[in-house]
Request: fold
Amino acid sequence: MSNFSRRQGNLACGLLSLCLSLFRPSGANAEASPAKGESARINAEATSVDHAPKLDGTLNDPLWRSAKPIMEFRQREPHEGDPPTEKTEVRILYTRHAVYFGIHCYDSEPSRIIATELRRDVSQDLDDHFEILIDSNHNRRGAYVFEVNPLGTQNDGLIVDEQGDTNGGDFDRGWDGVWTSEARITPDGWTATIEIPFTTLNFTHSSDVAWGLNLKRFIRRKNEEDLWSAYRRTFGITKVSEAGELRGVKDIGSGRLFIVKPYGLARYDKQTGENPKFPFTGE
Reply:
């Protein structure tokens, strides 16, 4: 090859490299990628509705179909990272006053679903059940947990500093929230509907709300634990910092819960034996 041909080839390569550098996306147009050693955080979207869906334990209300289902669960136990053996779908709606979860736990053998517990705030580890974690302050350290079994029985509590209860449970059952649940066993599994008022979640931001969110299903007969996020054995649902995020909740008003406790002051003069006096009036 002549020197002239070599120079032409080098010039063509240089021009091509220049063009590629000019048109390579950068800044806001560049494709986002997680930092080394950091996994991308998954997101779910809540759908706004004008009124609450029917909360009868079924997903027959057409409002549920307006929400995009969450289906991306992974096993934590017994086979870490594998797809679940049974499909699960969760839909999320909200109004100005509450957030609603529609849960469909498909089961290929519905007659083998285990559901016995009817007492509130009692461990459901011996039943099939479903848990919802909400980090409403988005601090990635603490969260509320709402649990329901196929009979609609409620259990709830708190995770503080990513710690459950002292007996190894997912959460501390010392907290009781105000929420409603219904559930039914169906020919293809079991379904549940849940309403959680915003006042129960005690948060401050009311516009473009972002919460930490995680979802867990437990299939008792298989000892199978399926999670939406934090499915690694070293994590689990108590690992609030590894939860996904819930987006789409906008302009809902205050979620701050105020608790009013009656309080009074009185004073009694031991020397004179007079009637109690009120310090503010002296009467």
User: Anything to note?
Assistant: The helical segments are 3-23, 198-201. The domain at 43-249 is CATH 2.60.40.1190 (Immunoglobulin-like). The radius of gyration is 27 Å.
